[in-house]
Amino acid sequence: MEQAVLGTIPIINPAVISRNTFDDSLILVNCDTGKSLNLNYTGMIIWGLIDGKRNPEEIALQVCEHFTEVPESVTEDVSDLLYLFYEDGFIGYELKL
Predict the structure, then answer these.
(1) Intra-chain end-to-end CA distance of the chain, in Å
(2) What is the pTM for the complete model shown?
(3) CATH architecture observed for domain 8-91
């Protein structure tokens, strides 16, 4: 799967709304496209770390601090999820020059 571009800053599309569900997941809806995603707890943590300030590597570091056990592929996994968000229009990227 494609990965987020290293050195870029993900930003949330303002047309995306999110709602917590009764089963501790988060539903994202892109009002521009009608696409939706249901995030598990890990996905919710990553979504919450998209603040327009952190790049994918910094988000992965925060994930490592949040959980006691993380796979060695955490940076790649975070990058893959960010790319999925991007591909479906839930986020965009701000390039830091």
Answers:
(1) 26
(2) 0.88
(3) Alpha-Beta Complex (3.90)
